[in-house]
Design brief:
41% of the residues lie in helices and 18% in strands. It has 11 helices and 11 strands. Helix 1 links the parallel strand 1 and strand 2. Helix 5 crosses helix 6. The longest helix is centred in the middle third of the chain and has 22 residues. The radius of gyration is 22 Å and the shape is elongated.
């Protein structure tokens, strides 16, 4: 589909907005921007509760400027989120579109990660207009340099690891901290650099346990260090197992801490609030100008929009060079 839609196409009057997949701090800020920007553009805005699951079930309510008051600073998503097995089938997608027509929705703005965008693409391929906005703490959307929720999650993890370092230094021990990231290590790598971790393990790069973990810790001990931090993305190993292996091999007391879903919560940072607000307004601009089936992205310091098919073919990854820089700082 071309960037500029045919001007003879029906006007967009009613738009839906949903959050899908894992929640991320800043999602409420996106919804707020979509609602207020949409009303300013002359749209009626409808909130779809519980993601795609709520779309095919018709769990849809009208939103207004007051509905989104006092939501900017709140974590999570007041529209709630869920995963829908029904929507993953062609019949489920058709049912969702049928329900959207029941509510006279002309387009839907979807907020989430890769799974959310694949669902949006399924709707687009069936002729239903969509706009996708990246919201995930993993920062693993290939077409965008930044995703909403990433900054807050990093700051949350950083603050908790700083506290654990205080304990580790008091007891001359090794703390192994497991952060989120089943398939992406952006969160782990950046948090490790920000907290001065001796070791970071990520799913993108295969590690040698003796060389990359044991040797790094022993080198630190032999140079006078008395405490050690290991940050591991959940997709690269389990903190409990790693801590046990470190203690068995080195004799250094080791403790595991799994930060878990606490990284998803909390009031979004300024950066997440700002990015969420600007991305939400960009989505409304796309609908107003009838640039449909787009993904909003942040590239080279600018908020842009890309064709959904093009966006979902892009890739990005963490390089060995990025990991080496972290090791230099950990000396």
């Amino acid at each position: 589909m071309s960037e500029k839609q045919n001007k003879n196409e029906p006007l967009i009057r009613n738009i839906g907005v949903l959050t899908s997949g894992g929640d991320a701090p800043g999602m409420n800020a996106v919804i707020r921007a979509v609602v207020r920007g949409g009303i300013h553009a002359g749209f009626k805005v409808w909130g779809i509760r519980r993601g795609y699951h709520g779309l095919w079930r018709g769990d849809i309510i009208e939103l207004n400027g007051r509905t989104v008051s006092e939501t900017l600073q709140r974590g999570g998503t007041f529209l709630m989120t869920a995963r829908s097995k029904t929507f993953q089938s062609p019949e489920g997608v058709a049912k969702a579109i049928e329900m959207a027509r029941v509510f006279n929705l002309d387009a839907v703005i979807t907020i989430g990660g890769d799974g959310t965008f694949r669902g949006a693409r399924d709707l687009a391929r069936q002729g239903f207009p969509v706009i996708g906005i990246p919201g995930t703490i993993d920062n693993d959307i290939a077409c965008s340099d930044y995703t909403i929720g990433y900054d807050t999650a990093m700051n949350t993890a950083m603050e908790m690891i700083d506290k654990l370092r205080d304990t580790a230094s008091s007891h001359e021990r090794c703390s192994v901290i497991e952060v989120m990231g089943r398939e992406a290590g952006y969160l782990a790598l950046n948090v490790a650099i920000a907290t001065g971790a001796e070791v970071v393990l990520i799913p993108e790069i295969q590690s040698d346990f003796n060389r990359d973990v044991i040797k790094a810790i022993l080198d630190g001990r032999n140079s006078g260090k008395k405490h050690y931090i290991v940050v591991v993305a959940e997709g690269a190993g389990q903190a409990l197992d790693i801590a046990g292996r470190i203690e068995t091999i080195t004799g250094i007391e080791s403790r595991a801490a799994i930060l878990g879903h606490v990284q998803r919560g909390g009031s979004p940072t300024l950066r997440d609030r700002y990015m969420a607000s600007m991305m939400g307004l960009r989505a409304i601009e796309c609908l107003r100008e009838r640039r449909l089936n787009r993904i909003i992205a942040y590239k080279s310091g600018q908020i842009i929009d890309l064709d959904i098919e093009e966006a979902l073919t892009m890739t990005k990854t963490i390089s060995q060079e990025d990991l080496e820089r972290a090791k230099i700082l950990a000396l």
